[in-house]
Amino acid sequence: RITGVYAWEAFDSRGNPTVGCEVVLSDGASGSATVPSGASTGSHEAVELRDGGTRYGGRGVATAVANVSGPLAAAVAGIDAGDQRRVDAALREADGTTDLSRLGANAVLGVSLSAAIAHASSIRQPLHAAVAEADDVPLLPMPMVNILSGGAHADGALDIQDVLVVPIGAESFREAIEWAWRVRRSTVEAAEARGLPAHLVADEGGLGLRLGGNRAALELVAEGIDRSGLRSGDEAAIAIDVAASSFAEDGGYRLRTEGRRLTADELVAELAGWVADFPIVSLEDVLGEDDWDGWRLARQGLGGVQLLGDDLFVTNTERLRQGIDEQIANAVLVKPNQVGTLSDALDVVRLAQRSGYRTVLSARSGDTEDHWLADLAVGWRTGQIKVGSTTRSERTAKWNRLLRIEAGPTPTTFATWHHHPLVGGL
Ligand code: PGA
Ligand code: ZN
């Protein structure tokens, strides 16, 4: 039973304040978590409460912290932390809004997560086992690893936000992450061969390079794959987070680095050209978060690749259900802080899995040294995970946790790229 809930202002990886929380149980067990924070946030996400004013440049979370210690702590007092649904329902009820804008989704998620971690500690199980269904074998996810960054994560160096590598031929997690490391290193070499400053990294540890165009970014990563010695399109492939909401403008899309303005139709045709020319297996947020007409075009123009909705679905069951009904996209990015509770995030994962949509659990561009995300991916069997690059400790914390789970005493399986055929949507 929950006997104490404590909160404080911690820092995230961008150096911004974020909510830290600890839940203590009657048997003395405790769990704590710090909450991540996005930069290219979807407008339909649950609301992150910031203080405003001058303290911490307006980005303080003292109000959210007070909401944890006050109304949220009161709401969950005495509840069995093993009953996550009850904990989360009590948190939602205390807030009273659907977007958690009264007490803050950052406050609510801190308690939801800390309760789960405290419960796992209380029953002396790893978190991945505590959040799994009884008969499920833990599934290590296929990683999607950031190589080049643009958009809101690299001061607009590229219009598209991430170019990532997916080690699609890997047969284990440790092999997958080593292959991703190889591609990152050989992309650094390819960049240095062009005289580019490849030691500068962006928010998620990817290279932040000014390349004068989006296609040039794909060429550089494709060269990195070739230089790595891995077979392109067979062992290593490319994923892109287009993050199109971040350059949507007046009903169209403006590629600033190329001085071009495209309609939704033209953007889909541009992306189809990239898919034809590069070994691309996954495209995220190819159109704006409310451009459902454009997404219908994408279904026709980009068949065959994983089409991932992040800002589009914002880890929200209603938006995902609408997408499934209209056959929009075929995969969903899941970020617990977009919705505010673990139960709601799990509902999105299960709805997707029932509907043949793939699931990719994701960190945020502002993240922390916590590694609960790795355990959720394994226990919920999401099949894929996206946490940034293989540098910066808030990123490596998740990779290191997955490596430890793989090496540890619990038998696991690994989600090879082909374990889950693309059936949804297309
Ligand atoms: P964010 O970026 O955390 O800044 O939203 C991650 C993503 O867009 O996938
Ligand atoms: Zn995204």
Can you offer a commentary on this structure?
- It is a single chain.
- With 426 residues, this protein is α/β, with parallel strands linked by helices.
- The protein has helices at 62-76, 84-95, 105-122, 127-130, 173-193, 214-228, 264-277, 292-301, 317-325, 336-339, 342-354, 372-380, 393-407, and strands at residues 2-11, 17-25, 30-34, 139-140, 142-149, 162-166, 237-241, 248-249, 252-255, 260-262, 280-284, 306-309, 331-334, 358-362, 383-388, 413-414.
- An eight-stranded mixed barrel has the order 5-6-7-11-12-13-14-15, surrounded by six helices. Strands 1-2-3 form a three-stranded antiparallel sheet.
- The model has no long low-confidence stretch (mean pLDDT 96).
- The longest helix has 21 residues, at 173-193.
- α8 (292-301) links the parallel β11 (280-284) and β12.
- The protein is 37% helix and 19% strand.
- The structure holds 2-phosphoglycolic acid and zinc ion (ZN).
- Residues 38-41, 152, 161, 241, 243, 310, 362, 364-365 line the site of 2-phosphoglycolic acid.
